[in-house]
Specification:
The protein is of the alpha/beta class. Helices cover about 25% and strands about 30% of the residues.
Length: about 325
């Protein structure tokens, strides 16, 4: 089975690694995003997928835009093919119809949600933020729509109260690789038939913007806790302590605000392992944080070096 693989970030790696270990499978080419500036020196760096492909001597294609470079891309792909199937996971560009039809069996997408719920760019974050009890991975036959293709198979996993975007990222990346390893051969052989998505229950996972991280303390503690987990570690939720930006990496909701007179954003206690802050309803106990320019640390470690007093206000803007 000859495969052309489309992927870019670390989320794609377990699937590529699984393909490289599958008997009878040959990854003939990898398509990934162009090198980007990274680090303090802003030096160009290849994607995690490119790094793995280069290490395994797999030809790499890096179109800036598949649509604008369609002819040259097809010529380069044809020189490396033919392909039985395309496997796409977090590539970062829309695949035109001519690219989708390039492999004999079309392109299969590994999507990190239980379609049709959470089509789009940020399914992991939106599932946590919405308070979903579970999420999962689907193998989907790609078409020209946004995650609208028929689904070959799916696997689900529970979302716990301690899960963040990072922990779910890691769990779903591994789950997607297992599903791909189990079902790809049957998909290519035609023995596993894709089922159209249900027209009801469609939701869209819009791209996460960094501005969403600003904590509005007038919101409920439950909502804020889910937002913290959904945006941790990147781009991260934040507030301001004494005018200094403070990233909140993990926090848990509490049912009572502690005192009826407390205003949203007011520190109720700052001892032991948490900084507890009054919200619009309930309170939020911050246990993991990061000050601007500093490393991540527990609230307990932070409080050993910085005294925070009840009554102080965490604000939505620097003073």
């Amino acid at each position: 089975m000859n495969v052309i693989f489309f992927g870019t970030p670390s989320f794609s790696l377990p699937c590529l690694e699984a393909l490289l270990q599958m008997p009878g499978v040959s990854v003939k080419a990898v398509v990934t995003q162009p090198d980007r500036p990274a680090g303090r020196g802003a030096e160009l760096r290849g994607s995690p997928v490119k790094e793995l492909a280069v290490a395994r001597n797999i030809p790499v294609l890096q179109p800036v835009s598949l649509r604008k470079e369609l002819d040259s891309f097809k010529a380069a792909a044809d020189a490396l093919g033919p392909f039985d199937v395309g496997v796409v996971i977090a590539f970062g560009q829309i695949l035109p119809k001519a690219v989708l039809s390039l492999p004999r069996a079309g392109c299969v997408n590994v999507h990190a949600s239980l379609l049709p719920r959470w089509r789009g760019a940020a399914p992991i974050q939106r599932a946590i933020q919405a308070g979903d009890a579970e999420t999962g991975v689907c193998l989907m036959q790609m078409d020209e729509g946004l995650d609208t293709g028929a689904v070959f198979s799916r696997a689900s996993v529970a979302i716990s109260a301690s899960d963040t975007a990072q922990t779910m990222h890691d769990s779903l990346a591994a789950l997607g690789a297992s599903l791909l390893e189990r079902d790809l051969a049957a998909i290519v052989q035609g023995s596993l038939v894709a089922v159209p998505q249900e027209p009801s229950g469609i939701t869209y996972a819009s791209k996460v913007e960094s501005s969403e991280g600003l904590l509005d303390w007038s919101s409920s503690a439950q909502l804020l806790a889910r937002r913290v987990r959904a945006l941790s570690p990147h781009p991260g939720c934040f507030t301001f302590l004494r005018g200094q930006r403070m990233k909140v990496l993990f926090a848990s909701p509490r049912e009572s605000a502690g005192t009826p007179q407390a205003q949203p954003g007011e520190v109720l206690s700052a001892t032991g392992s948490a900084i507890t802050v009054a919200c619009g309803s309930g309170s939020l106990s911050i246990t993991q944080l990061q000050l601007a320019g500093k490393r991540q640390m527990s609230a307990e470690e932070f409080l050993r070096g910085t005294a925070v007093s009840p009554g102080e206000i965490l604000s939505g803007a620097p003073r």
